[in-house]
């Protein structure tokens, strides 16, 4: 509640200083009660705003009233934007510059609220150069432009020579002048201010369009998602007018990537205690960004840490306080050295005066000695020797004091050089912190790319394992088929060998029949020759065969068609027996 009270006081301070409280103090208090949802107390209001010089209408009297009757009753159940807009309405008309500006009234209001967030916790409110640089860098980054560090350094030097920082209205004029956004139109500047406002004031960590799977109808619908430190809200569109639901985040929530399915890609799952949500991003980069952002948010909730921008603001304030304390300590040491130097100067002045007095006394004694030289010659000789010894000692003391003075002046020069080196070291430390921030962003980007590549490699590895398993199964199936074919081949080889044996037997039978046929043909020829010889031209008439003759490639067959059928039946029987 202390942090909330400080934030409220900054906006109220602007409205308080802009109003004539003798006439408008009641209006301010009434409006505060309305926007902060604090119960009205008309009796206390009239009592504390009675018309006298000691009431709360004075600067000394209003703050106790504000704390007791308004701020201590605030519960946090109010609209911060509406509260800031009410305070802005009361103070803007009086303080806002009328000069031409890139900022619209709405943009100026958002810059004013951002100023209250980044300003120092002391009054009158100002924003220091370090926070100005932080805000301008955020705006430049949101506009997609390059940051001009050298230009800002010149501006910072000019600012430090005149004052500690800028007021809210001077900051609005600076951004509206376009000094650090040259080449950017009004719409681009407005979009950048809105983006920074959403992040720093509304605690919007990430937002964008994604597809969400319904819990009842299981259909996919495009929604505008807004991630905040403890909740993800989703709307029909980015104008945030029609909210469709919330995803409440806590330390028990988790988010994990899902494989592509149902024609949807870039899927991830948000698991909560009571419900889970399936989301589809537009591409792999957006998917990884959302997963990383949600995981970071859940980690912050587990650790009880504030949002990153608030934690960064607190660290910057602590660093400034540390540097301020070191600078004050250095100034204190310089003052001590200066005081010691002044004391040494006084001591040297005292010694110089003593030497002058001693020299004057010596001159006087010399004069007296000259006047009484004749009368006191012997005595003068003794005094002269004594005076020489005294003079020698005094000269030694003067030389010693001069040496000490030279050493002291050398020490002062060394301290001045050390002070310059300390200032250079402070500048180097600031530059190192900026370089560290740049390297940290680069490392975060490299880690994100490595995570994406690691996920893709794991996916490839899984697909390779599946392919290997399928290949092993196919190899086993082919081996089984090969065994079956080898067995069939062996059976076929056996049948082929059996057929070869039968072919050889048939060939042998054929040779025997052929020999018989040749013998029969020779006998017939011999017989025909004998008949022709005895009977001359008489033709032998022979009875013809009743069955049709079979003709082969070698001539008439040696067996009839019936015998051939018998042989075929015999071969088929042998073949069936072998199978």
From TrEMBL:
Query: Which InterPro entries does the record match to this protein?
Result: EF-hand_SWAP70_N (IPR057836), PH-like_dom_sf (IPR011993), PH_domain (IPR001849), PH_SWAP70 (IPR057837)
Q: What's the main place this protein lives?
A: membrane
Tell me a GO cellular component: lamellipodium
Q: Which Gene3D superfamilies match?
A: Pleckstrin-homology domain (PH domain)/Phosphotyrosine-binding domain (PTB)
- The answer to whether the entry has keyword Phosphoprotein is yes
Instruction: Extract the coiled-coil ranges from the record.
Output: 309-530
Q: Which SUPFAM superfamilies match?
A: PH domain-like
- What Pfam families has UniProt attached to this entry? EF-hand_SWAP70_N (PF25530), PH (PF00169)
Record localization: Cell membrane; Cell projection, Lamellipodium; Cytoplasm; Nucleus
Keywords, comma-separated and alphabetical: Cell membrane, Cell projection, Coiled coil, Cytoplasm, DNA-binding, Membrane, Nucleus, Phosphoprotein
Q: Cross-referenced PROSITE patterns, in alphabetical order?
A: PH_DOMAIN
Source domain of life: Eukaryota
The entry lists its GO molecular-function terms as: DNA binding
What are the residue boundaries of the PH domain, all occurrences included? 203-299
What the protein does comes down to:
Phosphatidylinositol 3,4,5-trisphosphate-dependent guanine nucleotide exchange factor (GEF) which, independently of RAS, transduces signals from tyrosine kinase receptors to RAC. It also mediates signaling of membrane ruffling. Regulates the actin cytoskeleton as an effector or adapter protein in response to agonist stimulated phosphatidylinositol (3,4)-bisphosphate production and cell protrusion.
Subunit structure, briefly? The SWAP complex consists of NPM1, NCL, PARP1 and SWAP70.
List the protein's name: Switch-associated protein 70
Taxonomic source organism: Ramphastos sulfuratus
Question: Which gene carries the instructions for this protein?
Answer: Swap70
